[in-house]
Structures are given as C-alpha cells and as structure tokens.
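Example 9 (inverse folding). The structure is encoded as follows.
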C-alpha cells in the first residue's frame, strides 16, 4: 500500500492548485447545497489521475451520481470538502480521497491547500501530517478537549445536532456555523 502515498500526495497537491487558482462559477446542486465549477474541475482531474494510475479500481465521487460498480474495492473522492466555506473565502476546506475494501477504509489521504498540509493514513499504521506521525492525546480532561463539528448547510441537521450540545458548559462556533444558525437561515 505504500505506493498509494506518493501518488495520492501528488494528485491532491495538483488538485489543490486547481481549487486555489481556477475561476469559480457557483450552481445549486440541490436545495441548500452548492457545487462550483472548481468542484467539477478538481473532480475531473482526480478521477482522470486515479483511473490512469489504478485502472482496475472503480471511483465513487461525491460530484458524480452514476456510480454503479459492484466492486468490493473502490476509491471514494470528495474533490472539495467544505465548498461553502471555500466560496465564502474562509479556510476549513480540503480534498479527500479514500480507498475502501470490503466496506473498510484502508487508505485515506486529505490535503489542505491553504495550509499545505497532507494527511495520510493506512489501516493499522497510524496517521501522518506532512510525513510526521500524529499521536492522540491520552487522558485529556473533557474541559480541555477541542471538538469541531460541521453539520453542513441543512437546517434540520444543524437543529438536530445542536440538541446534543445542551450539556456542554462552553460552546463556541466558527463564524460560518454562527451565520448558518441565524433565524433567517
């Protein structure tokens, strides 16, 4: 599986350049969801690269709705995870590629083109950020933990999700979440 790491890194970095430098055209995908010309351009690029490098592995992409393969192995792609913050000019977006085998995610790669951070994980081998291992904190008191949640643009999901936070003593939200939770949204 090591051969995946460098290939995915190159694909993600190039897709990141598409996201950062291509002109944007915004369309509504469905109610309260948008897709941009950049989502599509990055998606097309990633699919072409993965198809060239791994022609026998089908690809499921968030932007393509015609996935019909019955294969037990597939690539899963989100070419612009966080389209809304990206359209607003905020950080908090990334590009994600995962390899699923028999329902298990065995490889995952995420790239943040703004911070130029490449995250990579293989099942059973841990996670790296820019080639450096990431270790989880052990026995951190709840009051010192940081939790980030994004329920997307769906008003119902936000309302449902916020119910679970009523027991927290202190709750902060990103400007995007605050804006999305205003009464007119």
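The amino acid assigned to each position is listed next.
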């Amino acid at each position: 599986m090591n051969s995946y790491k460098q290939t995915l890194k190159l694909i993600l970095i190039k897709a990141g350049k598409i996201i950062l430098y291509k002109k944007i055209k915004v369309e509504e995908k469905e109610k309260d969801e948008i897709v941009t010309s950049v989502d599509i351009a990055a998606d097309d690029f990633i699919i072409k690269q993965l198809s060239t490098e791994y022609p026998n592995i089908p690809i499921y992409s968030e932007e393509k709705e015609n996935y019909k393969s019955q294969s037990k192995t597939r690539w899963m792609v989100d070419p612009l995870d966080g389209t809304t913050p990206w359209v607003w000019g905020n950080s908090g977006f990334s590009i994600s590629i995962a390899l699923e085998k028999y329902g298990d995610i065995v490889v995952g790669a995420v790239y943040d083109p703004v911070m130029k951070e490449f995250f990579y994980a293989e099942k059973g081998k841990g996670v790296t950020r820019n080639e450096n291992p990431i270790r989880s904190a052990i026995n951190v008191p709840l009051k010192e933990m940081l939790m980030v949640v994004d329920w997307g643009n769906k008003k119902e999901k936000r309302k449902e999700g916020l119910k679970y936070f009523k027991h927290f003593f202190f709750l902060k939200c990103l400007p995007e979440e605050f804006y999305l939770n205003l009464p007119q949204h």
